[in-house]
């Protein structure tokens, strides 16, 4: 604003503006010429204005000179100030450069990779290092003191004739004081944590192990004079050697007793799990021999021979048992460990050797299922052997001291079975092996041949099944399932047994059931296609004739019998298995445990478990599968009955239609000599005889009897309906009725000869047909008496007496007898 004002004031006067103002003034003052002429002081006014202008010009000139002088002075001062400002600017830049340099000198060396540390940083680093060294010096001094106390404790045990642990107690007290002091100091974030307390506690433990190791070495030196780990003949050892052994033994026991009193609770528990110190020392020598034989490159270290190292441990336990039970047990009896069973404790301490071996070898066996399975079986056999020897946890240091919680040994197999991955790998390998064997069984050329009845394999079967001659596949499947049972029955846990049952065993029985069912389905398909759709048109040489050969005749029934005996045999085996103690216990355990019940409920082949834990389980574990197999048996029997009766009925069609006029003398004592039978009847008789003879020679007597009754019952009903009840308008003459009786007798006689049974048993299914034929064949007074009694006013009791006198026992009601009698041509009722 000042510069603008200065420029405004320096501008020259505006003449035009002055003239305009003067003109305006004159125009306002002198509006006319008269005003101008009448004004007397105009000249004075003009003169006054001129003087004023001159005065103003003088002032202007004076002001102009003053202004010029001020401008000059101002420019000089401005120039002077400009030079001063430039000098100050240069000074500022130099100060900024110096400040930047000094700042760079103070920046940490971490800000640039090529710059060195500052002096201040060097001093700070040296100061920190000094403090750390002082702290480390304190730590090292603490550790040094602890190590010296540790060495002193070990040396005290090594040099003292008696077990003294005062130096060890000093070490414990020192570590406890350090732990207390460290607990009061707050952790500093910039100071690294050296874990000194944990290290010192480790020193305490190492020291105790070293002390135990010193005394163990003394015991082993004394034991070597007893020829340990060979079998010890203690009576032949020199007295001084025995004394040395006993002293070393007692020293270790005394050390363990002291340790239980002065050591930390958790450490005492861990020590108890380790076992007795003297026996631990003795086991070390056994472990060295085991390592020499089974963990090196010797021929005895073979993955496929786990029984070698299992047997080695069993032999060691058995070989040293007399020494443990006599000498060692006597040594323990005078100490506070008198309740410990020396042999069981020694055997318990041998087990970690085998456990370590298994944990190292099993991962390599997962890709070799046969060797893995063999190893597991050997482990189970090892457990069984030790249990049979009397080994268990009670009486060992692994058993609770209070004796209330009685634990039992789970077995060395639990090392494998307790790990889900290893157990599942074994189960899967067993499943594949069992299924491969199953497919090999059913695919063999003699799988469906009915075996010879030697009776040896069926000696354990029920009497009802001993006459059963099963197929080779049924026997082999039974043996395979029993083999699977033998493989998993030694498993100690029911959960593992249930898993094995569901994954390995049940699929075998289900697959065999499906195989038999598929054969029956195929038979039904062929028989329904070729026998029902086009009956009598098969066997013409085309493809359909092959189907006829597969289902017709004795060959077709033979296929059904194979399915029947196979299903019946396996069902009978399952009934026996279900009542076996092993499966009864397994089923009871499945019903009792909720997790096993849930697994069983998801398997269709198992019965529904009983949810009530306080109630005994119902049925057996194979109850559902037995029901399925029995349905196969019933289905096969029905197909046999349908096939045999259907074929015989088809063969009877020409005879019933009267297509054959040839006659032949009757065969059989029950047929009168003067009656000739149609030759068209011989074919069906021969067919029935061949079927019955085959059934009698193949199936058990009870099954044959049942099938025969059903077959004969159907044929009897068929003949009764076609030849008596529904033969149309034609009525029989007496001669035809007599021939019908002869035919009925011939049916019965044929069956009797084929079955080789008494006539009374054979005749039962044919009795309706026989009685109807005999009623029609009565003549003379007997005929009249029967007709009068049947159609007359006789009471039912009188009618039954007449029937009993004339035709024997009559199974027909009176109304049906009336219908039968009306089929005689000479019946006028």
What do you see in this structure?
The protein has 829 residues and is mostly helical. Among the domains are: 135-182 and 193-271, no CATH class; 275-400, no CATH class; 425-452 and 462-529 and 551-633; 676-822, no CATH class. It contains 32 helices and two strands. It has helices spanning 2-10, 15-29, 33-38, 42-106, 119-159, 166-184, 196-224, 239-262, 265-274, 277-294, 306-319, 321-333, 342-365, 369-389, 414-417, 420-443, 463-466, 472-488, 494-532, 543-551, 553-578, 581-592, 594-601, 623-656, 682-698, 701-725, 734-755, 759-763, 767-777, 780-791, 796-806, 814-821, and strands at 663-665, 676-678. Helix 5 runs parallel beside helix 7 (196-224) and helix 21 (553-578) runs parallel beside helix 25. The longest helix has 65 residues, at 42-106. The termini are far apart. Keywords: Coiled coil. This is RINT-1 family protein.
